[in-house]
Structure formats: C-alpha cells, structure tokens
Amino acid sequence: MGHCYSRNISAVEDDEIPVGTDELPNLPTENHRHASIPQSPLASGGPEVNSYNISPFQSPLPAGVAPSPARTPGRKFKWPFPPPSPAKPIMAALRRRRGGAAQPRDEPIPEDSEDVDVGGESGGGERLDKNFGFGKNFEGKYELGKEVGRGHFGHTCWAKAKKGKIKGQTVAVKIISKAKMTSALSIEDVRREVKLLKALSGHRHMVKFYDVYEDADNVFVVMELCEGGELLDRILARGGRYPEVDAKRILVQILSATAFFHLQGVVHRDLKPENFLFTSRNEDAILKVIDFGLSDFIRYDQRLNDVVGSAYYVAPEVLHRSYSTEADMWSIGVISYILLCGSRPFYGRTESAIFRCVLRANPNFEDMPWPSISPTGKDFVKRLLNRDHRKRMTAAQALAHPWLRDENPGLLLDFSVYKLVKSYIRASPFRRSALKALSKAIPDEELVFLKAQFMLLDPKDGGLSLNSFTTALSRYATDAMMESRLPDVLNTMQPLAQKKLDFDEFCAAAVSVYQLEALEEWEQIATSAFEHFEHEGNRIISVQELAGEMSLGPNAYPLLKDWIRSSDGRLSFLGYAKFLHGVTVRSSSSRPR
C-alpha cells in the first residue's frame, strides 16, 4: 500500500501476529477493541458484517459499497519493560501464557490485571465493586432498538427517548458489560470514559453526551446518534482518497476537536478514521470524534508510558513509552496522508513490521499522487509526521498552517504557549536575550499563529499579565481541565504578576526553537537570529558559566569549549544554535557498562 524509504526489514518471526494486507480497502475488521487482528472478510471470503443491515438508518454509501469492509483495531499493547524490538515481548508473553501456542488471532492481548482472579465466579479473591452510582431507570426512559456496532466490552444500539428533554429523539446507547470488567483498572477505565464524555460534550465536533445509567449487568451510556457513518466509509466510497479541498474541510474539523480536548488536558490515544463519525449522509455533514475508551487526563508536565492505540496510527514515542498530546498529532498526520493519497505512510505484513516501519522508515512523498499535491499540503503532512515530537505541530498550530488558512478555521488557545512562557520567564537573562534575537527572525507565516495566540490572551494596555493568562484559561475551562490540573501551571508563572509581556517579548517567550528547526528555512532563520544576537545579546562567557546556564556538569566542558570563539570569548554561531536547543550530557557513571 504506502511506501517506506528505509533499509530492508528482516523477515518477522513465526510468533508475530499478522495484521492484514498492505492495501487500504483490506484493513482488518475490528471485531472488538483489544482484539488481535483477524483477517478481512474480503480477504477470507467470509460473510461481511454490515452494521447498517440491522440499523433503522440507510447506509450513507452508494449501492454496492460496503461500510468499512475492514477496520483498524484499537488495542492496548502491554509490555513488562521497554523492549528493543516493540512486538517481541508481546509475543513472548502470549507464548508463555498459552503454553507455546503460536500466532493467536482472535483473543485480546493479555493485560497484567487479567492474570489474577479478582472476584469472578470462582470466588478466588476480593470481589470487585461494580456499582458506579449511575441512574437505575434506563428502561423507563428509553426504548432500546437494534444493535448498530459491537466491541470487546459491549455493543452499541440505537434507542428512542420516551421522556425528558429529548423525548422522541433517536440516540445511540453504548452498552458496556459488567461481566467484562475483570479488574479495578477496567472499572476505572469506564468511570474515566464517562467523565471525559460528560466534560467534553459541548464542543461542535465532539459526540454529544446525554446521560449514563446502569443495572446489575451493564452500564448504558446515552449519546448522540451519528447517522452518516465513519470517515473510513467515506474514504472508501470516494475510491480511497479525498481531493485536497475536501481533505482540508475534514482535517479542520478533526483539528478543531483535537485542539479543544488537548487544551483540556486530554489525550485521545486512538485517533483513526474509524473513530470519526458524520452526523448525517449529507456531503457537508459535521464530523465528530468518538470513542474515548483509551483516552486519559494528562498534566502539563507529565509523560505517559503505557503503550496503547492502533498499530498503523501509533506514534514513535508511544513505542518508546514516553509521550504526551503530540502522539495524537502523529495519528492525525497518518490520517492526513491517507486522505490525500489513499495509502498508509507506514505498513507491514505483521504488527512488528509496522512498528519497525514507524520507528525507522520515511513516508513516500515522491510517487503519485504526491507530485500533484500542493507544496503547502505536503509540508502540512510532513510537519505532523516528524519523528521528533518536539518539532511536530500542535493542533492549534496546524489550524494556523498556510494550507488550512483559506478554510478560516477558528483558532483555539494553545496550551503549549503557557509551557513556553513559563520556561521563558524563569530563564536566565542570557537565554532570554538569545530567544529575543531568535524572535526577530521568525518568518511572517509563523507570526500568524503567535499573533492569534496573543489576541486570544486578551492583552490589556498592549501587554499580557498573569491575569491575562489566568482569565484566558478559565474562559475555556471544563471539568476535564480541572481533572488534569492544567491550571497548576499558573503557579509557576508568578513573575508575570509584576511585569507584562508586550507582543515582541511574547514572541520571544512563545517561540519554539524545535518548531522553527523543522522548517526548511531554518538555516536562514538561525543565521539572521545570530546577527541580531551579535549586536544585542552576545557577550564574553566562560565554559563554566555556559555549563551553569544549561544546568550541565564538568563532563560537558570539552563539548562547550567548542561553542565559544577563541578570538573574543563569545558564543560562536554553532554555540548559539546549540545553546537555543539545550543538550543532555551523560556523566560517565550513568553509562551502561
């Protein structure tokens, strides 16, 4: 399907799980959430499961086009330790637990919590409390209809409201089986998903949450019914790809939702075409993000390490077990690539091969139809599929990208600005001088985003105070933001209580060195910035002082010595560029022996 530029990847072991073929229409069918990947119905010749056949709503697809003939399964990869090869520990665990059986296909990957009986029918262990405290009168308020979808923990049905504010309205009901809740962790997952749906429900591109109920056997999550089908269905109905103008419209909606929940401190962790639904069959129907079963709250200074997601869309840093909201942006990059060319950027015959491709290979931007795609469109995708998560665009930055600017997307406050400003106001005068010089070399295209963020913070008398940042954050706050404790960052920005940032200094504070380095014109930007620095900030500095500026020890002295000009004791161009980035130098005692 898609092509990768990399060295040949060796053949996988016979204990690795096949994940389908390389063509997009032959993606594996999703039978349940954490399932191993089965063969596509089209590939196996088996009967096709068509959710619209048992739904009261007509398929949004033309006659003869199957809805999502094959799905990309969401899955939770569980590793006991960071592996050198991402898939091997999974396979080894499966062999041990299954007595050496090879290539399990239809069972979920075991999780640590599933090894212990925690209160099942055998009674061996403390019984789990599966009472959530939700309402008990679901049957009195809703008339349940036929099933429209199925997952590992339950299924989704359509239903009609019998009373209340939405009386007579048709809704979707996600029915989660309590019998499948075999650990405290799985119970907490359900609580968190409900909490997330409730907190994020107000956004235009988030599926609307109505209510939640429970009985002795199930949890019933009542949500908006999206009758237009999945984004994947539309891609397939269009022959596998979208024209640029239509792809832009889709991506603006995806990014708008993502920018919103990222601002709330929520990372989705399973963004893929199957998790976006259209509200109706109309071509201009609104797109909504669904399925927060793998999502989580994340603090502004936190990195997650559990490996979850869908193989084709998982970010490299997820496989390295250290990631944040940037992982969602990688997934959107994969979706963008598929929308524009109809192929996956990374593919493989097995899960292990996919992971290796994600970690090592470069997407193909040379073959058709890429030569016919606009330069700004290609740049957009490349800046999302950057393996260095620090150089990847945020959702708010992506909305300000030149490729999407004609779509007039409404820009949202970007929390990355808060983190950058926090670092700036706590930096040394020498580093602030270096960043001020860099801000004077920012290209006009990049200034568009900074100007928008400055205005969203509502400056008073031409400047931003601590109150500006506090008020702006509270304006967008939901219960999710409180849960992820993002406002805690304001406690680290107290120096702004005594001063204001005008626009020029805000640019110095909010500019990302790594984001600029991802641009093709980085060398010219750095050269121009260094010229400003020579006139306004560069000074004589010793190796010891420079090490202190960067919080480095004596082991770094030989490296830093090369950054200082012997002629006048000031930073060289190389030293300036490196100083902007910062470096990490291991001590000899920390190296593996």
UniProtKB/TrEMBL annotation:
Composition-biased stretches (Acidic residues): 109-118
Top EC group: transferase
A cellular component annotation (GO) from this entry: membrane
Keyword Phosphoprotein listed: yes
Coiled-coil blocks: none
Species this chain originates from: Eutrema salsugineum
Ranges of residues in domain Protein kinase: 142-404
Keyword Kinase applies: yes
InterPro entries to which the protein is assigned, alphabetical: CDPK_Ser/Thr_kinases, EF-hand-dom_pair, Kinase-like_dom_sf, Prot_kinase_dom, Protein_kinase_ATP_BS, Ser/Thr_kinase_AS
Localization terms from the record: Membrane
GO molecular function: ATP binding; metal ion binding; protein serine/threonine kinase activity
Residues holding ATP: 174
Catalytic reaction(s) noted: L-seryl-[protein] + ATP = O-phospho-L-seryl-[protein] + ADP + H(+); L-threonyl-[protein] + ATP = O-phospho-L-threonyl-[protein] + ADP + H(+)
Source taxon at top rank: Eukaryota
Protein name stated in the entry: non-specific serine/threonine protein kinase
Similarity remark: Belongs to the protein kinase superfamily. CAMK Ser/Thr protein kinase family. CaMK subfamily.
Region (Disordered): 1-130
Keyword set, alphabetical order: ATP-binding, Calcium, Kinase, Lipoprotein, Metal-binding, Myristate, Nucleotide-binding, Phosphoprotein, Repeat, Serine/threonine-protein kinase, Transferase
Membrane topology field: Lipid-anchor
